[in-house]
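Standup notes
- DV: blocked on the single-chain target, sequence here:
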Amino acid sequence: MAQGRSPVTHNDREDPPASTDGPRIATEVKTRGDADTATETVFRLDDVHVYYGSFLALRGVTLDIPQNQITAFIGPSGCGKSTLIRCLNRMNDLIPGAKVEGKITYQGQDLYGDGVDPVEVRRRIGMVFQKPNPFPKSIYDNIAYGPKVIAMKPPSMDQLVEESLRRAALWDEVKDKLKQNALALSGGQQQRLCIARAIAVEPDVILMDEPASALDPISTGRIEDLMEQLKQDYTIVIVTHNMQQAARISDRTAFFNAEPAEGTGDRTGLLVEYDRTDTIFTQPTDQRTEDYITGRFG
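- DV (later): unblocked, structure below
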């Protein structure tokens, strides 16, 4: 699928190398040469701070997220991973008192600029949550719901539903029961259905906030295999507490930590280190990263 480049406005909807002497950590990490391949930057974050009321939840995040790769956010609870991923499609707009400072650009456009339509942002940048949340409707209607709401006019809704389910590796399992209630599916199937639902509105990016944390190992493996396939067509950003999962599937990894904010007793999230996944897991440049990866963190 071609990556969209037009502005995310209402009108559009209508029409650093690792040191060779650095620490080495014994971790099974898949080497990913494509992480070094020149690629377009989809998101660019520059000194991003996120507040909930007067509480500084995340401070000073600067990083670039490349196209058609899987970028993982890891770190302990409370370090701002989910807060940050929700900034990427303006989900935090829905939280009273939430405020984003700094700059986030999406394909070169200021994501929080005047005239940007948050609804169109969320169509272009889909989201899959930690707990599968299918609608209490049929499998077919779950997929067709989004396209109908945004007034998409595909040549065939049946074809769109089938293609979305195929892309989510679910079609063969549900093709004979499309009219059955989606809540009757297993947890892993429900999560793949939610991925299919996100795909149906033709996004450029898929955000995943701990998509496999509630699933059994077999279902988790299927979700990971699916992500590997989907990155051929989509840019994927995933939040995960599972370091082995990040090592297995991601091209780049950002490690976050929660540390005391200057002048207050509150702990606030910050980006400690961001690099190729194999570098983060075998030759991190920051001691905090090494301590977290090796289990000495605390």
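- Follow-up: Confidence is low (pLDDT under 50) at residues 1-5, 11-27.
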